[in-house]
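User: quick one, sequence for these tokens?
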């Protein structure tokens, strides 16, 4: 989210009288808090002394123990398969685990296509949404021993892999060549994973570049290996069709992101070799950022061919992040009184910050509901399913207890002051229109701090869920297809115009709202492809007929030229809307240099085709004669909106009338072309402009 902006003219400020009345309730609660603080102080002192004494024995024990996560016993791991009735995976009395079935044993009820997986029961000590230390993926080492019982070369399948994955269970349709790591269909894939594979089948399908039917590789998010070792020579000690018992080791060093792999067959020794067979540098913290839960697994899969995959042992250790235990103990013993003092200050400040934060936000957002953080955490399954990401926010899909689907938007500016947040919520909660995204609720999680500074924290906004996603994905992304036909596109243009006209003229008797970031990514679509304008992160409430001076903001390609001069008005939104019209009509991104060259912006490109303006239409559109005239009107309107001088552009009331009547506006007689990018580099004005808004 961008910096939250101050509102002008005092129209949106909390009334000092109202705030004074609210603060009257603070006095009795302050007295109660004083007695509460005294009780907490005494209790904290007793607990700190008890904790320091108990820590001596606990730290002595923990200092001498390895941080071993699992040793293949039922207390540490769970066995997982796609078909619960297949008996795969199967653990024997000798602790061997058969991850795939043995084709030499004919069993009618065992399906060929299956996945067998062993997973450590609990997530690894990593939190991509956590604090600075938690977001660094820990160093770890793993060692596992296994054996394949194969038939003739390239007639078995499909292999075994150690993986770190975001999937708690095997994905559906992940059998055979997908090794239980990802789905067969690209559209179904959502997980992130890092894997070490021992592959016994050579695949030639798209997305696979297997060198042979006996190879070892490191994979990230797909099964085209970052680095691979071909072991298909029958004399190779790691030839996977010799039915060797193989031991493999993998280490990850968080300080330099280096991954190293060793492997040997157990015919001579099970000691780790001195030389690694694979080395690659990859930052796992970056791979799993924004994920709260990641899991360690051993997975194997069978397809049309199969082999008996036997797992004998698996060990994994992670680095100890607890620091030096004796230094921690010394601190606990030497400074219990300091701990008590800090706890008391922290408790009081959190109580005070929470009270004032909620007071301001509740005053601003009536009657929009306030959610508790725990409610949103449960609704989003721990903020795991990301459905959108912007420069200043991350959007998660959530399901409320009553079954309502919502979009939960987390603002990434964690230092936003609550009074500034309250003003933005006041703008959004006061807007109700069919073609504007509805705010259903909010949550403010105060940032924990030890001082009594003004409260800052994390802001969460709860919006209605738009099942069809945003317009950008339908124009340029994976959802592009026949659903965005000529009639639908014209309807979307009209819907956005209605929404923007409402913001500009129908908001309040004393002011209107500037959106300041009109673009395809901020146009959301319902199940019936009805458009709703959303994302008011840059919005401001402005007095009527006023031009404001503010920091440049918006998205490249959509921003009006005057914004660089910090002159922002309704006509700035009109310019962005004009770019959006042309983008919807042409299907071209605003900064697609390859398609609009030698021009720098879409408006210039269309103006160069003004004599045959319908040539700018998306070639995939099939239009009737009547629709062609409506598109002619829309493209002429787009040009009028994209003129360089704000005073030459129509207002949104005029825009709406043109669209409703399919009026053909005159093409501007003169046109100021935007200075583009030359062969030697970008011009100074263009460079300054884009550096100001990025």
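Assistant:
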């Amino acid at each position: 989210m961008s910096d939250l902006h101050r509102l002008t003219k005092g129209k949106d400020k909390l009334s000092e009288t109202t705030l004074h009345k609210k603060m009257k309730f603070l006095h009795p609660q302050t007295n109660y808090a004083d007695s509460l603080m005294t009780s907490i102080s005494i209790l904290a002192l007793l607990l700190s002394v008890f904790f320091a004494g108990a820590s001596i024995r606990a730290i002595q024990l923990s200092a001498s123990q390895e941080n071993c996560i699992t040793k293949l016993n039922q207390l540490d791991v769970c066995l997982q398969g796609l078909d619960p009735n297949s008996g795969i995976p199967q653990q024997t009395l000798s602790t061997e685990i058969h991850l795939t079935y043995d084709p030499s044993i004919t069993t009618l009820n065992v399906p060929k296509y299956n996945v067998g997986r062993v997973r450590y029961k609990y997530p690894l000590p990593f939190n991509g949404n956590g604090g600075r230390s938690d977001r660094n993926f820990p160093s770890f080492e793993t060692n596992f021993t296994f054996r394949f019982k194969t038939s003739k070369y390239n007639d078995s399948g499909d292999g075994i892999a150690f993986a770190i994955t975001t999937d708690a269970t095997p994905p559906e349709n992940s059998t055979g060549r997908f090794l239980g790591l990802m789905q067969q269909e690209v559209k179904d894939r959502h997980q992130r994973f890092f894997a070490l594979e021992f592959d016994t089948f050579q695949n030639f399908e798209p997305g696979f570049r297997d060198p042979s039917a006996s190879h070892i590789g490191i994979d990230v998010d797909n099964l085209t290996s970052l680095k691979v070792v071909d072991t298909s020579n029958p004399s190779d000690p790691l030839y996977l069709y010799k039915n060797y018992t193989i031991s493999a080791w993998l280490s990850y060093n968080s300080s330099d992101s280096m991954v190293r792999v060793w492997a040997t067959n157990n015919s001579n020794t099970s000691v780790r070799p001195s030389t690694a067979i694979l080395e690659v540098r990859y930052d796992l913290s970056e791979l799993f950022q924004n994920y709260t839960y990641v899991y360690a697994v051993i997975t194997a899969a069978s397809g049309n061919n199969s082999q008996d995959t036997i797992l004998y042992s698996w060990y994994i250790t992670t680095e100890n992040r607890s620091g030096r235990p004796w230094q921690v103990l010394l601190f606990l013993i030497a400074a219990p009184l300091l701990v008590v003092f800090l706890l008391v200050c922290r408790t009081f400040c959190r109580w005070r910050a929470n009270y004032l934060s909620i007071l301001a936000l509740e005053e601003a957002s009536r009657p929009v509901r306030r959610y508790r953080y725990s409610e949103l955490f449960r609704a989003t399954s721990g903020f795991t399913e990301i459905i959108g990401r912007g420069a200043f926010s991350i959007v998660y899909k959530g399901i409320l207890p009553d079954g309502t689907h919502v979009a939960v938007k987390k603002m990434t500016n964690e230092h936003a002051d609550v009074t500034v947040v309250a003003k933005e919520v006041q703008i959004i909660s006061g807007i109700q229109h069919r073609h504007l995204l509805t705010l259903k609720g909010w949550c403010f999680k105060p940032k924990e701090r030890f001082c009594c500074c003004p409260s800052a924290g994390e802001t969460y906004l709860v919006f209605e869920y738009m099942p069809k996603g945003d317009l950008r994905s339908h124009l340029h992304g994976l959802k592009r297809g026949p659903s965005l036909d000529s009639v639908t596109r014209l309807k979307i243009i009209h819907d956005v115009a209605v929404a923007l006209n409402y913001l500009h003229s129908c908001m309040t008797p004393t002011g209107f709202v500037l959106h300041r970031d009109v673009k395809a990514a901020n146009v959301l679509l319902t199940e019936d492809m009805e458009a709703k304008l959303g994302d008011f992160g840059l919005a401001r409430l402005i007095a009527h007929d006023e031009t404001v001076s503010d920091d440049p903001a918006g998205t490249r390609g959509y921003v009006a030229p005057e914004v660089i001069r910090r002159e922002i008005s309704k006509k700035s939104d009109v310019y962005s809307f004009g770019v959006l019209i042309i983008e919807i009509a042409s299907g071209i991104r605003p900064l697609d240099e390859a398609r609009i060259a030698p021009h720098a912006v879409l408006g210039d490109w269309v103006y160069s085709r003004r004599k045959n303006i319908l040539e700018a239409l998306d070639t995939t559109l099939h239009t009737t004669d009547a629709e062609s005239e409506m598109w002619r009107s829309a493209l002429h309107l787009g040009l009028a909106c994209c003129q360089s001088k704000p005073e030459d552009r129509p207002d949104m009331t005029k825009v709406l009338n043109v669209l409703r009547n399919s009026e053909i506006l005159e093409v501007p007689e003169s046109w100021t072309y935007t200075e583009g990018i030359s062969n030697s580099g970008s011009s100074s004005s263009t460079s300054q402009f884009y550096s100001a808004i990025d």
